[in-house]
Predict the 3D structure of the following.
Amino acid sequence: MMSLEQKRTARAVVAGILLLAVAVIVVIVSLNTGTIRLSPSSIWRTLLGSGTRDETLILFDYRLPRIVITVLAGIGLGISGAVLQGVSRNSLADPGILGIHSGAALGLIVFVSFFRTMEGPAAMLIPMFTFAGGIVISIIIFLLAYDRYKGMIPIRLILVGIAIEAGVSAITLFLSLKLDEDTYTFAARWLAGSVWGRDWVNVWALLPWVAVLVPIIYSRARTLDLFALGDETASGVGSHVTRNRMLMLGLAVALSCASVSMTGGIGFIGLVAPHIARRLAGPQHRHFLPIAALTGLVIMVSADTIGRSIFQPNAVPAGVIVAAIGGPYFLYLLLSSKPNSRRNY
Amino acid sequence: MTGLWFAAAFAALLMSIFLAISYGAKQLTLEAVWAAVFSYDPDITAHQIVHEYRLPRVLGAVVTGMAFAVAGAVMQGVTRNPMADAGILGVNAGAAFVVALCFAFLPGLSYTQLILMSFIGAALSTLCIVLLGSATQGGLHSLRLTIAGAVVAAILHSFSSGIAIYYDLSQDLAFWYAGGVAGVKLEQLKVLAPVVLIVIVWAASMGRSITFLSLGDESAASLGVYTGRIRLLGMAAAVVLAGASVSVAGSIGFVGLVVPHIARRLLGVDYRKVIPFSALLGAILLVWADFASRMVNPPREFAIGAMVAMIGVPFFLYLARKERREL
């Protein structure tokens, strides 16, 4: 007989392998999609270094950077959503809905207002600006949602997020109306969640954030499990609740803001991916964080691929595709949750 | 006491209108301004400025301000939800979505047709959100209505910007969306104003039933109010008011949220008084917001929606903190 623990691990491993297979297929399909079609075999050949010059150019200079960015951003958004839901004990939490992305957008608009360009080495700074905007807005949101006696109030967190988002959007609108037409178009596309990072420099700007933050978060999976028990129990078993909460929130905000810096304000992935992952792998963060990352990856890459292939000749931002699926799912969660249960607000 | 408040608000409104017409980006003498209003001579530039730009936009602010505020008051009354507001319940997002569709697929529409279409969009999205709200546990009364509204608005907003980007309409749509009352024409007001005034009078005539309804369904029913019918009629009135205003003035949120709360604080919960008083306060608020939006940095204009949001967001946060009841 396997113990419950072993059963869960086995289930998570199976789910992980299946999702990994799906992810690989999605990435290959995505590499294959575009104005010039490349067959899977020629992609394979080119990746191994023996493709024709055109194939190498298309794959390495155009498709691969964009796909690596969507992969990294999908992982980042999936994990940051899982952390936010765990820390706030709020299954409706999502960096987009909580208004964190509106802070990132503000950071981005400030960046384009000052630098007037998104090209070249300046791109390395973009994640810092989105992060700065996001962290300032999140601190405001969490302070406003915090009650001295009751701690974080889940429903208030969402309401405050909605209000702050409206206010920050007003500022962003004001700043973006001052931009010239090209920059304005860029900002509008960004806000709608259109993957714009297409060069290797964008990949290098994003990679360190994901590569550093994801392992740190994963190493603290146990801390996240403790939050689910409630603040009193968690501090009873020796967890430093407030400090850990602030730390994990900071990590999640950093991860999501860095991810959206290259892909635009995409909401709902951080909401949907952890829910699917929890169904597949059970409630323990150790198991479901990797699954949430893979789910986020699959959603993100498919949304981007659908957005740029089905609606030819123009592209539809990936954020629109995600909202079309994630929005109704959010409403479903909202309608089916019970008013008074502690977890499901 | 009530009469005093009404007199004060009415006087304040007249003074605000007077100020807003008298001052603007172009310095004009007071005599010229008022000569333009009462004895219009199309050959004088100053008269043209006043007649073509200032007068319509100030009157536009009055009419849309009244409409948004009364829409908010009625929605808050019939749903018993202190956070109900046209912007929050998705009216703006629905209107913007349909306008984006029209820009993309029916580019030849006349202005009147566009107003009609955006009105239909507003009505449909509100219907959708109200149905969703009724389906949640706790019903329309619940704070989930606010969240459902915000999420439906987010989805519609995402679709509109997708359409705008796909068909390269971003800035056209942004101008419509953030335009405020700047582009209002007297001809539009001639259509809008009677509609708004009639619906406000109609809503005020339901004031007694709405007051009972705001006390709770059981007590309202025991006092002889057809709760379902009043709720339906009230929402219909609110959608007509908000939808018509959004189609003329673009997206202006928070007026309907803030104003009714102030009105209730000053006059109590009697909606026979709250509705007309909200109309006056809403008009004052938007006249000032519009005045401020063009005086902050002349001749450039500040988005009026952002101006109102500066007052509305802190107020919303205050309500969110105060709201202690369970979902």
